[in-house]
Design a protein that fits this description.
The complex is a heterotrimer of chains A (99), B (668) and C (177).
Chain A lengths: L2 H21 L3 H26 L3 H29 L15
Chain B lengths: L2 H21 L8 H25 L8 E11 L2 E9 L1 H24 L6 H20 L3 H19 L6 H32 L4 H11 L5 H18 L7 H4 L5 H10 L4 H8 L1 H6 L1 H22 L5 H22 L2 H28 L12 H4 L1 H15 L5 H16 L4 H26 L5 H7 L35 H16 L11 H10 L11 H28 L3 H8 L1 H8 L4 H48 L6 H23 L1
Antiparallel strand pairs in B: 1-2
Chain C lengths: L1 H21 L3 H21 L3 H26 L13 H22 L19 H11 L1 H22 L14
The chains are: A mainly alpha (99), B mainly alpha (668), C mainly alpha (177).
């Protein structure tokens, strides 16, 4: 199987994740789309590892997974905290950085 | 002490006087400021005499001495020193100026006594004398221009002395603006001189001029014409003369000093000083002579009909300066300077006497309201008559010898210069007429109410008001003081007038044709290299001229006697018969209206045009346009700062895509 | 055979991804992501990354997604408004993302990496096995391993702090003790 295909798939998944981040308003879903992008990166890493015969890519992918997990934990903690404080769960309402 | 040291003293003393009075103006009690000012000028006069004696000690060829204090401006090929030129012409002038100024200061000590601005008056007056002396003693064009400008300022300050009077301030501004026109001419002339001869100091310029220019070369004619612009503005010749009558708004001593004896003679001095250049440009000299002649006639004609006492004397000044301008333009330098000296004496005297009369009239200046002061102001009347006699050129007086010397020289020069002689004598008749018009109106005839009051021992009193417009005033600072001083009561005034009267009578004896030639000999030091000043006319012709002058003056006096004493009804009858001419003359040949239409209106229009079109539309438009553009840009850019996280994320992705595109292109 | 497996996996991954971004109910999105993760695990198996595939299923789909399920259930259904407040977002986002995808594809297919277009080198036995992964972690990448552990610890503590109930801190009355 051509390695190209995996890489193109990875790019496609990444783009899809990006669209999701930009389009959706709920923080939960945005985090999910971020997961998509991270996984696309993982796929690319594994593919390269296979391509070059080097296992370091897989190590990298595992560490990426660890980081993703941490990020999810913190992100969801934030969402729960927001929900508790009755802050509307809509990123469009968080506009204090407006110039 | 050498002549130049005396000359520096002459400059320093009035300046010191002015500063002393100015800085301590609160300290001086009573008339102290006046005495300080008078003393300063008096000492300057003594220093001038010192300079004269030192100069006479030198042989005639070595009488052009220079001295400089320090470098004034030394850069880029320009080397100007703060230098003075002490030579017969300048010493002559400073003697006249300091001498007459001392007497006028003496007069003013009493005359402006009750004015709240007493110290300011003397400070300005001293400053004026300093400026005039600077102008006269300057040894280079730059210092000349400095002195010229200072004199203009001093004149403005003194004309507008009663600054709360609107007519006075307007007159001051008018004088200053016209003087500035002259300044421009002078500066341009100096520029051209420098461009051609690369020097500013007189001796270098005059020595270089003869070799550098040939006769009537365009540049030298242009230089002389520009010098004439300056001279005519300062000396109130046509067409830059309209400021002089209005300048009578100043106090009478100011009129005596500035507008009779000193400042207005600066133009004459300028032409005399620049004679090497003028002799290289006969065209310009002839133009000057004709304008001088025109001024003589126009001014004399106006003086025949105006009724304000000071303005008659002002027009008389204008006319006599015209004589001087004619004199120095055609090469009669000695005669011109002589007339300058005698004119200073009798004109200052006339103004002083007029001041006394006006004081008696409680500041009214209309001669139609005056009359019969012979009994109530005997001393003033006597001196008024003396001055008028000198002005008319009555045989024996100083004016007699000086005026005719110019006209004889003109006749001797041949060619078309006869015109000057003929017209000059005709104007002399007019001069005699209007001088004695004043005398007969003021001194003779039915005593007016003010004269009656004076006979009874008290001065007439009137509500203070503007003598021209009649508006009511008060006597606080900025307006004339409440008291009026006449010569019969104020001793300093009497002494000053007496000295001038004496000078006006005997001053002519220094230049009797065939007998004495003191001034001519003295001025040889300056005019030695002149091609036109070829010595005195033959004595016989001179005496013929004197005879003609005597006839003409007696004729004029007689006519005035006829019209104002013998047949008083004749004057009003003539006025109605020649009402058109009368109106033309009373409106001063409509010169003010002409200048208004030709110069003032277009300038105002231009200013308005620039304001409306260029200032409001172009400049404002540019500035506001730039502001608008900036504001618009920032409004547009501000859209990017929406606060939406997703919008920022979109920008991020867009940037990322752009970067990727860039790298793709670069690596392909 | 491998191509078929690849396409099944790819379809699953793509479908899951599209479902994540398209479904309105966040709970459904979570479930879609789980499908996606499983498909990716399958692809990893194809690429001889057995351990990573297992870790993906057990850790990612197992633990992390369960966490997501809990939170999604807790938070509930959020009605996202239909209209888009940011002008042009709906148009530009897919546009920019597809631009990115195109560029990446060009980069991939046009690159001069020798390994592309091939099936990859022959790999030794034990490639992607837990043993070799473990050996890597404990020998070469020990510090990475430890750092990742610390990161996990910090994240856990942070999450507890974030989500903990806020105690009302009583203001002490001003008597000095």
């Amino acid at each position: 199987m051509n390695m190209d295909w995996y890489l193109v798939l990875s790019a496609l998944l990444f783009a899809t994740g990006a669209v999701g981040v930009l389009i959706r308003r709920s923080p939960v879903v945005i985090l999910l789309c971020l997961e998509l992008m991270l996984n696309a990166g993982n796929l690319a890493l594994i593919t390269f590892s296979r391509m070059l015969g080097d296992q370091q890519g897989q190590i990298f992918a595992i560490v990426v997974m660890v980081v993703a997990a941490c990020e999810v934990v913190v992100g969801l903690g934030l969402i729960v905290a927001m929900y508790r404080r009755r802050i509307p769960l809509n990123v469009d309402d968080l506009r204090q950085l407006r110039g | 002490m050498s002549a130049t040291t005396y000359a520096w003293l002459v400059l320093a003393l009035p300046l010191a006087g002015s500063l002393t009075i100015a800085f301590g103006y609160r300290l001086w009690p009573g008339r102290a400021a006046g005495w300080i000012g008078t003393a300063a000028i008096g000492l300057a006069f003594l220093a001038s005499i010192g300079a004269l004696t030192q100069l006479l000690g030198e042989p005639s060829e070595h009488r052009q001495l220079t001295s400089s204090l320090w470098d004034y401006a030394s850069a880029a090929g320009v080397n100007v020193k703060l230098g003075i030129l002490v030579d017969p012409l300048s010493v002559f002038m400073i003697l006249v100026v300091t001498g007459v100024s001392t007497l006028i200061h003496l007069y003013s000590v009493s005359y402006v006594e009750s004015d709240r601005g007493y110290a300011r008056f003397f400070s300005y007056l001293n400053f004026f004398v300093f400026s005039m002396l600077l102008l006269l003693l300057a040894g280079n064009f730059v210092l000349l221009i400095v002195g010229w400008a200072f004199v203009g300022f001093a004149s403005y300050a003194l004309i507008s002395f009663w600054y709360r009077r609107e007519t006075a301030t307007k007159a001051g501004m008018k004088a200053f603006v016209i003087n500035v026109v002259g300044d421009v001419g002078l500066v341009l002339a100096a520029f051209f001189v420098f461009r051609e001869l690369h020097a500013f100091d007189y001796l270098t310029v005059f020595q270089g001029a003869a070799g550098h220019f040939h006769t009537n070369q365009g540049v030298v004619v242009a230089i002389c014409l520009l010098l004439l612009v300056g001279a005519f503005a300062k000396s109130a010749q046509l067409p830059l003369h309209t400021w002089l009558p209005d300048a009578m708004e100043g106090p009478t001593p100011v009129s005596a000093l500035i507008h009779a004896a000193t400042m207005v003679t600066a133009g004459v001095y300028l032409i005399a000083r620049m004679h090497p250049l003028f002799e290289l440009a006969p065209t310009a000299a002839d133009i000057a002579a004709f304008i001088g002649l025109a001024t003589v006639i126009v001014a004399a004609s106006i003086a025949l009909v105006v009724t304000d006492l000071k303005r008659i004397i002002a027009y008389s000044t204008m006319s006599q300066i015209g004589y001087m301008v004619v004199g120095v333009s055609i090469g009669a330098y000695t005669a011109g300077m002589f007339h300058l000296m005698t004119h200073a004496f009798f004109k200052a005297l006339l103004f002083m006497a007029a001041g006394s009369v006006i004081a008696a009239m409680a500041s009214r200046q209309d001669i139609d309201r005056m009359g019969g002061f012979r009994r109530s102001l005997p001393y003033t009347s006597l001196l008024l008559i003396v001055g008028a006699l000198a002005l008319s050129g009555f045989p024996g007086t100083s004016g007699f010898f000086s005026k005719d010397e110019i006209l004889v020289f003109a006749a001797e020069r041949g060619g078309f210069y006869w015109i000057f002689a003929i017209a000059g004598y005709a104007a002399a008749a007019m001069t005699a007429f209007y001088s004695f018009r004043i005398v007969f109106r003021v001194c003779y005839g039915e005593p007016c109410p003010e004269a009656e009051a004076l006979r009874e021992g008290h001065m007439a009193h009137a509500e203070p008001e503007n003598p021209v417009t009649g508006e009511p005033e008060d006597t606080d600072v900025g307006f004339p003081g409440p008291e009026h001083h006449v010569a019969e009561q104020a001793r300093s005034m009497a002494i000053a007038m007496g000295c001038l009267g004496l000078a006006a009578l005997v001053g002519g004896f220094v230049q009797i044709p065939g007998v004495s030639d003191a001034i001519g000999h003295f001025l040889e030091g300056t005019f030695a290299n002149s091609k036109l000043a070829t010595g005195n006319p033959p004595t016989g012709d001179a005496y013929l001229g004197l005879l003609a002058g005597a006839v003409v003056s007696v004729l004029g006096i007689g006519l005035a006697y006829l019209l104002y004493v013998v047949r008083p009804g004749l004057a009003p009858a003539l006025r109605t018969r020649l009402s058109g001419v009368h109106r033309f003359l009373v409106n001063r040949w409509y010169f003010d209206e002409l200048i208004d239409a030709v110069v003032v209106r277009p300038t105002l229009w231009l200013g308005r045009f620039f304001d409306d079109v260029i200032e409001r539309r172009v400049v404002q438009g540019l500035v506001e346009g730039t502001v608008g553009v900036v504001r618009g840009t920032s409004t547009a850019v501000r859209f990017a700062q929406s606060g939406f996280v997703r919008a920022y994320a979109l920008l991020l992705i867009t940037g990322f895509a752009g970067l990727g595109l860039y790298f793709l292109i670069v690596s392909s | 055979m491998e191509a078929v497996a690849f396409f099944i996996g790819a379809l699953g991954a793509m479908g899951g991804a599209v479902a994540v971004i398209a479904l309105r109910n966040p709970f459904y999105s979570v479930l879609a992501l789980i499908v996606h993760l499983f498909s990716l695990a399958g692809l990893f198996l194809l690429l001889h990354a057995e351990f990573v595939a297992a870790a993906q299923i057990v850790v990612y789909a197992g633990a992390v997604m369960v966490l997501y399920v809990f939170v999604a259930a807790y938070v509930g259904n959020i009605e996202e408004p239909m209209w888009e407040p940011i002008a042009g977002q709906r148009l530009l986002a897919p546009l920019m993302a597809s631009a990115l995808f195109v560029e990446l594809t060009i980069a991939i297919t046009g690159s001069s990496l020798k390994a592309l277009g091939t099936n990859g080198p022959t790999i030794p036995f034990g490639f992607g096995q837990p043993a070799s992964i473990g050996r890597f972690f404990l020998e070469r990448f020990l510090i990475v391993f430890e750092a990742a552990s610390i990161l996990l610890l910090v994240a856990a503590v942070g999450a507890v702090v974030l989500a903990g109930r806020r105690r009302t801190t009583a203001v002490p009355s001003g008597e000095p003790t």
